Amino acid sequence: MSCERRRGGMEIYEQRSSVEENGSIDQNLLIDPKLLFIGNKIGEGAHGEVYKGRYGDRIVAIKVLHRGTTSEEKAALEDRFAREVNMMSRVKHENLVKFIGACKDPLMVIVTELLPGMSLRKYLVSVRPKQLDLYVAINFALDVARAMDCLHANGIIHRDLKPDNLLLTANQKSVKLADFGLAREETVTEMMTAETGTYRWMAPELYSTVTLRQGEKKHYNNKVDVYSFGIVLWELLTNRMPFEGMSNLQAAYAAAFKQERPALPDDVSPDLAFIIQSCWVEDPNLRPSFNQIIRMLNAFLFRLSPPSPSPSLPECDTNEAASSSNGTITEFSSRTRGKFAFLRQLFAAKKTRNTH
């Protein structure tokens, strides 16, 4: 049974958890493997391969996960599989790849809608060195932010947000977030393993090598996704690889221990520069939520081009933010205003130091 709620002008559909505490999968989510036909491989990752295929008379994407060799590895991978099925079946949003079903035997398989478009990574490379139209880049960023806001509203941390996991629709007008293989419930983050995700997009707190006291648990929250979004937004605006000229490990070290970030172009809008810098600021508690990011991007987009009759901009909660006639944000909660004012002063001071 599903329920519907509206949040920030966006509809989020939720289902009850379909994976029991012991990791078994609800029978309603399992599909008949005899109806599956696996075709050509279209992608590959650390934990499995993705194929174009058919489920019944429907063209689909079929993710086949690795089984492992040892009993311990098999148990861990089966748990990862059940967790991914759980989260994909629980959240539905127009900017999330649609879950169709799963199989446990003879292969661990997750079936989703097939997007005929390419990944955002391949798309950016195909047009490089040309930059995306600013309107297109901001709309792609809004798609990503809305998908992430949906996940966070449901207590899910993605942990691997990057252009490879963002898929373009057939008309290349929007993007959808895919691959929940590394996603976790926020309630169990303190038990999560660090060094999860892809180095160039990972928040520094995920791969810090500071030795913890014996028995102390590593804890981080959903703001790791906000950091990754900041890197993705930078890519959308520059169409360059983050931390160019560095290996993955060099990029990780530079971000975590030297507080380095990709250089912002001189011609980038101060408002967009502020959003990016706010997302990748060192202190996770100072990073904005995706709800706030959506509001700031919508305000910028409203100012970028005249508003059209449809679609209308998402409604804003009156106690959180409001937009003036020229699209600038005029009202935030006092706590949010204080945090953003501090960040603006911090970035201004840093820019002044860099110019001297």
UniProtKB/TrEMBL annotation:
Region (Disordered): 311-330
UniProt keyword rRNA-binding, yes or no: no
Pfam family name, one: PK_Tyr_Ser-Thr
InterPro entries attached to this UniProt entry: Kinase-like_dom_sf, Prot_kinase_dom, Protein_kinase_ATP_BS, Ser-Thr/Tyr_kinase_cat_dom, Ser/Thr_kinase_AS, Ser_Thr_protein_kinase
Binding sites annotated in the UniProt record for ATP: 63
Record flagged with keyword Zinc: no
MF annotations from Gene Ontology: ATP binding; protein serine/threonine kinase activity
Reactions listed under catalytic activity: L-seryl-[protein] + ATP = O-phospho-L-seryl-[protein] + ADP + H(+); L-threonyl-[protein] + ATP = O-phospho-L-threonyl-[protein] + ADP + H(+)
GO cellular component: cytoplasm
Alphabetically ordered keywords of this record: ATP-binding, Kinase, Nucleotide-binding, Serine/threonine-protein kinase, Transferase
Source organism superkingdom: Eukaryota
GO biological process: signal transduction
Span of domain Protein kinase: 36-301
Listed Polar residues bias regions: 320-330
Entries under PANTHER family matching the protein: PROTEIN KINASE SUPERFAMILY PROTEIN (PTHR23257:SF779), SERINE-THREONINE PROTEIN KINASE (PTHR23257)
Assigned protein family: Belongs to the protein kinase superfamily.
Protein name listed in UniProt: SERINE/THREONINE-PROTEIN KINASE HT1-LIKE
Organism: Salix viminalis
